[in-house]
Write a structure and sequence with these properties.
Length: about 190
């Protein structure tokens, strides 16, 4: 329990019984995204009988999962959505995702925009623009509201913080899809 929680006489949100297990189930559902997972998690969240102010983040997580399930279903039947944007950094690329974001590891912690195009991931904000071509991305990780893009050369890991779980889950799915499309096949030489 934190100091402020002690003063107020309240339990910490993270100490609520069953909440840690619910978050574990949510993480598993994000990897699986079966359509029934959202309903099952909603029922499980209600069963915890916690005050609404203690589960507002989990409600946001649930909404993000619901959007991810819908996005995956759309992509399975057609392709990645195309987002209309007039942003000059996009150029002639197709834009598949755009959302407000920040760079928490930058000393100035600039706010800006995360844009995922057919050719690259772009962060526009602060004094500089960061561009990472998909063929240079070896791994895409979502952790809480952070999207991590790991470069193939391992020289840098770019951490971009989204404002809501909906954005980070969608961005991670779109980024994984685009990065996998741009991977060069590995050649194996014989003995």
């Amino acid at each position: 329990m934190g100091w402020l929680g002690w003063l107020k006489g309240k339990r910490s949100v993270r100490e609520a019984p069953g909440l840690e297990e619910w978050r574990r189930q949510w993480r598993a559902a994000c990897a699986d995204t079966s359509p029934g997972a959202v309903a099952d998690l909603a029922v499980a969240l209600e069963a915890l009988s916690l005050p609404e102010e203690e589960i507002e983040i989990e409600r946001e997580m649930l909404a993000g999962l619901e959007h991810l399930v819908a996005l995956r279903a759309t992509v399975a039947t057609s392709d990645l959505p195309v987002v209309e944007t007039g942003h000059r950094v996009v150029g002639h690329d197709l834009c598949h995702f755009s959302a407000p974001a920040s760079m928490p590891d930058d000393p100035s912690q600039p706010s800006g925009r995360l844009i995922l195009t057919s050719a690259r991931a772009i962060f526009v904000g602060g004094a500089r623009t960061i561009t990472i071509p998909w063929h240079a991305v070896s791994n895409v990780i979502d952790q809480d509201r952070d999207l991590l893009l790991v470069r193939r050369d391992r020289e840098a890991i770019h951490r971009i913080r989204c404002n809501v779980f909906d954005d980070v889950l969608s961005a991670a799915f779109v980024a994984r899809t685009l990065a996998s499309r741009h991977q060069r096949p590995r050649t194996v030489s014989g003995p």
